[in-house]
Every structure is written in C-alpha cells, then in structure tokens.
Design goal:
3 helices, 6 strands, four-stranded antiparallel sheet
C-alpha cells in the first residue's frame, strides 16, 4: 500500500486551479500506466478529502467509544490518498513509489493478508 502524505494546509489554503488539478490527474494516470508497463498492477487508489471532514472513533476499555471531529493525530502532513499496488517485491514497490507524482511523501507498507 502506498500512503500519500502531503502538507494539507498548503493544499487547502491555496487549492489548485482547474488547470493545475487536471495536470495532477494526468500525471497520476501516466504514473499508473508506468506501473503497469513496469510489471506492477494498481489494485486500488483514491484521493481523500481533507482532514476537516474526518471523524475519529477511539475505543475505550470500559465505555462507549469517544467520537471526535478531525484526524487521529495533529501533524503537518496528512494522509491525502492511497494506492494499493501489486509488486514483485519491495525493491519494485520502492521503484514505483519513487516516481509517484506527489509534493509530499509516500509511505510504502505491505498489506497484511487476512483472508484464507
């Protein structure tokens, strides 16, 4: 899983123009094609709305969960989207991640198998 983090304040304070947004989408589509051409496979991917739309549910040992507005933690960078990518190994996954068009960082983590 590629978790894409970015400086959310910069994006919210100065949202991209429609033209810049289309360029961003085109860059992501080109990246997806390069993953396919490189022998990988995009299994899923989505952009997320900003953290002002988030709600956090925090379980409590002996009480109802606490529900709060906003993200789980206060950070400068926020999770902005993700891709689930099938790759041969970590080296190939990192090669794909290095070329992902983002002005933030990409966290690469294996997905834990939970099905038979």
């Amino acid at each position: 899983m590629f978790l894409i983090y970015r400086d959310e304040a910069a994006f919210v304070d100065a949202p991209p123009t429609p033209e810049v947004f289309q360029q961003m989408l085109a860059a992501h589509l080109a990246w997806q094609e390069s993953v396919d051409a490189g022998g990988g496979k995009i299994l899923a991917g989505e952009a997320l709305t900003d953290t002002t739309t988030a709600t956090t549910v925090r379980p409590q040992a002996d009480a109802d969960p606490i529900i709060t507005d906003g993200p789980f933690a206060e950070t400068k960078e926020a999770l902005g989207g993700f891709y689930t990518v099938e790759a041969e190994d970590l080296d190939q996954a990192l090669a794909f991640a290095k070329t992902l068009p983002t002005n933030g960082c990409v966290e690469v983590r294996p997905v834990m198998p939970t099905r038979g």
